[in-house]
Specification:
Layout lengths: L1 E7 L8 E7 L8 H11 L4 E6 L7 E6 L4 E2 L4 H12 L9 E5 L2 E7 L5 E6 L4 E3 L3 H7 L6 E3 L6 E5 L3 H5 L5 H7 L3 E7 L9 E7 L4 E4 L6 H12 L3 E6 L5 E8 L2 E6 L1 E8 L3
Parallel strand pairs: 2-3, 4-6, 11-12, 13-15
Antiparallel strand pairs: 1-2, 1-18, 3-4, 4-5, 6-7, 7-8, 8-17, 9-10, 10-11, 12-13, 13-14, 15-16, 16-17
Helix pairs in contact: 3-5
GO molecular function, one term: isomerase activity
Pfam family, one: PhzC-PhzF
Keywords: Isomerase
């Protein structure tokens, strides 16, 4: 079986967020434990598995696994999957590809320059009490906290400035004990002239992802959050991990468009 490793939300290799992508034979998923073992072997933040379906609302069924668990929504591995389908000639440029997932129908469209635009549901933000133990584990001073809804199941914290986001060194063991999927920490960009409007980092040690390099699904919460704060419906986010990546976002009611490029870095065979 062919497997690709794709760097997503970047136009150059060894940046952005790497994901595994496996296009399965047949019209059904293999056993869950097999996919989980493959994802553990690949050992990236997510590995995507997909197969064709004959349905009125979708072309492919798509699932994502971290090295430890299945997740309900993943942005970068979906973007990587669209990139693989486009390069394999399985979808035409400008023609949307539709995925059936645990988070509903998601679409991706590749333009002539290789820019991929995902259409995802926005995350409903619910104010939460700040857990002193969690902010201590993150090493931040935060007075507000939001839950991002069932698809992502993250907590979103805004901090004072970009420098704080970039300098975080959290206690990941404590974060894992105090969260479900993960934690987003964000701030307004210090200098919007740098090409982005807000910064973020994402920590998900509870699901086997200590720090995710560029988290598309987190931007389903970051987009409505920052669009309201900044009074605009088109923004660019920068995820300030060691690899880093830009996510261009557009808010459209209860949907969000996430755009970026992708690069295939490994193309090989899975022998089991």
């Amino acid at each position: 079986m062919r497997i690709r490793i794709v760097d997503a939300f970047t136009d150059r290799p060894f940046a952005g967020n790497p994901a595994g992508v496996l296009i399965l034979d047949g019209d059904a998923f293999p056993a869950d434990d097999w996919m989980q073992r493959v994802a553990a072997e690949v050992n990236l933040s997510e590995t995507a598995f997909l197969h064709r379906i004959d349905a009125a609302d979708a072309d492919w069924a798509l699932r994502w696994f971290t090295p430890e668990v299945e997740v309900a929504l993943c942005g970068h591995a979906t973007l990587g999957t669209a990139h693989v389908l486009h390069r394999a000639g399985l979808v035409e440029a400008g023609a949307p590809v539709r995925f059936r997932t645990r988070s509903g129908i998601l679409t991706a469209e590749v333009d002539g320059d290789g820019l991929i635009t995902l259409n995802f549901p926005t995350a409903p933000l619910s104010p939460q009490d700040v857990d002193p133990a969690l902010v201590a584990a993150l090493g931040i001073a935060a007075t507000t906290c939001h839950w991002t809804g069932p698809n992502t199941d993250d907590l979103l914290f805004e901090v004072a400035d970009e420098k704080t986001v970039r300098g975080l060194v959290p206690d990941l063991g404590a974060v894992a004990r105090l969260t479900r999927r993960g934690v987003i920490v964000t701030a307004r960009a210090d200098d919007p002239a740098a090409g982005y409007d807000f910064v973020s980092r994402f920590f998900g040690p509870a699901v086997g992802v200590d720090e995710d390099p560029v988290t598309g699904s987190a931007h389903t919460a970051l987009t409505p959050y920052w669009c309201e704060r900044l009074g605009r419906d088109e923004l660019t986010g920068y995820q300030a991990s060691s690899r880093g990546g830009l996510v261009r976002v557009v808010l459209r009611g209860d949907r969000v468009q996430l755009s970026g490029h992708a690069v295939t870095t490994i193309d090989g065979e899975l022998l089991v």
